[in-house]
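Re-running Methyltransferase type 11 to confirm reproducibility after the cluster update. Everything else is unchanged from the original entry.
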Amino acid sequence: MLLDETKLLTVDSIMNGYDLVSKLYPFIPSMSIWRACEYAAYKRYSLPEPILDVGCGDGQYFRLVWPEINSVVGVDIDVSAIGAARDSGVYSAVYNTPALDMSFSPESFASVFANCSLEHMDNVDIVLNKIWDVLVPNGLFLLSVTTDKFLEWTTLPQLMKVVQDSDVAAHLLDSYKAYHHLVSAFPPNIWANILRKAGFEIVEHVPIVPELLGRSNLFLDTLWHVPIADGSEFGSVLEPYFRGLNNFPDELGRIIRALLAMETNWPVGSGAVFLVRKQGAKR
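Result of re-run:
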């Protein structure tokens, strides 16, 4: 179901994002593709400061999207990212804590940003309540999430079904969900209802990574995370191979543009970006 607040991206906006994002992840196609679509959506908006970045990672993507922002605090559960985030110069402070345990003062942030993090959280309703609490009245919350199509379009497991190896198909899909700790992949209208229930008004919804690009991207990402005999992932084989190809990021960009040019169903994506606004008085 198409939301009334839905706005669509353009091929050029995604490709402009890819040209920048691919410099961060030049030989990891699935990261470049997904982040390019998010970038195209995010650049539609300005976030008032101070900002809370929930699931901040190393901070490099935040810097790429909003290089002009000075007042932002980061939170991440991944201890391996915390050092890089603190050294990045992006954040005034970085906290290594689950979003569930955030303890900021009420109404201490003008906006909150959550880049592809909510779908990995087991208690998303509680996290949304915490985000509502820390926002000022009418504060903005900008987020990206996976949709139900993220699982429906996982091409490698689908291929295993076609060749009638349902056990391998189920194993691949289960392993992929476990790797990402993907606990929430809802249709956009369900995400919208979850956000409204938490006290937010939907300002805009932007579908990202439509079907042709989405299926291709999910094939690459699923393949990337297939375990191999030495205990690593198949990505450890693919990345050096891609590095050895001539002009890989630029030529991948041409393929992405071609896939987008053939797309016929832009309102349906494997991900979604929402801009929402806090409603209501202090609880």
